[in-house]
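Hello K.,

You asked for the raw outputs rather than the summary table, so here they are, unedited. I folded two proteins back to back in the same session to keep the settings identical. This is the first:
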Amino acid sequence: MAPIGNLRHRPARRLTQLYAGLVLYGVSMAMMIRSDLGLDPWDVFHQGLSLRTGLTFGTVTILVGALVLLLWIPLRQRPGIGTVSNVVVIGLVVDATAALLPAGLPLPARIALLLGGIVANGAATGLYLGARLGPGPRDGLMTGFVARRPGRSIRLVRTIIEVTVLILGWLLGGTVGLGTVAYAVSIGPLTQLFLPPFTVAGPPEPVPPAAASADPSPAELR
């Protein structure tokens, strides 16, 4: 694997993949918003805050991401270029895409937007994580907490955080529905599907001089 944040190996490929993934992630969020059938837990929270403050969805996403990133400091987490880009790019793209997509579409079109948004979100996650230039601020919060509390399960920590933001978002007026359940059930398998083909392999390991000069074994000559 290429070291996280290390751009010496295949920088053009990894940066292109990172930003393609972040743009697609923002597009997928806007698709789910326009479906009006339910959002993932963090976006329920973002939408609730947007409704209460009057700020755009993307602006709230950027502000929440920046605040979450500040929580990395006591956890001694170091953000990569992908982490900082995640905070800014996704918020800008989700607002731009939502402005292009019409609201109040017929139910079949909304279902198509929901399903397409979930699949695109899984692909986007595989793209930007596979570039290995730093996790998103929310993922880093979970992994950082677990690193500081080795006895805690990352699944448990993630569940607690996401249930908390989901309830807060719902109380603020965010949309919880079929899409919320569909996302929760499918995003794990989709990420598992898309991450391996998009993961950028690291440079080949150097061969120790002794091994390089050793005579080949009979098995290697076959």
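The second followed immediately with the same parameters:
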Amino acid sequence: MTMGNRVWTGVWVTMVASIVAGAWAQTPPTPVSGVYTCIDGKGRKLTADRPIPECTDREQKVLNPSGTVKTKVGPSLTAQERADQEVKEKREIEERSRTVDERRRDRALLIRYPNKTVHDQERQEAVVQIGVVIQAAQRRLDELAQQRIAIDEEMEFYKKDPNKAPAYVRRQQEENANSQVVQRRFIGEQENEIKRVNARFDDELVRLRQLWTTMTPAAR
């Protein structure tokens, strides 16, 4: 065999293999063995030993010889219908997952807060802890205010020309002003945190009231 013949033979084998593979990929799956039955669009009950063409748009049951349902074959879908079906199934999975997560959170809430007394107590403790932090910041702010009085008294000697004041006094004045700004900002953030804590407990209480209502007397 010449080199040209060998090349041509290789190309021919490759083409044939590709054609066979493509035909195999396009071959529909082998039907499930059994008795197919369905109700077509005209209300007729049809039966056959293979998938029923008149029912490609609806579900078909595959029966065992005993007459019991062996499996079910869904309707043949277009590419768009399959895409829509996949989207629908994805949404259903996400919804089931969301429901499971919600039930898990509900159980955790009930375990943590079996009644309103416990819930109120934890709310109060959370607010008190933040209040302690605010009080400490307020004390620091008062200290800074007292320091500022002393600095201002020293600056009084240079009120006609503040630029003649010693550098360390001007630096103390600037640092004191910045520190007061920081403390006031921190206090404001903590006051907002109290609002967020109360809002969270308010939201929890709405859900807990529903859960407590559904609890049996023995479980309360």
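Helices lie at 3-26, 79-112, 116-155, 167-214.

Happy to rerun anything if the numbers look odd on your end.

Regards,
P.
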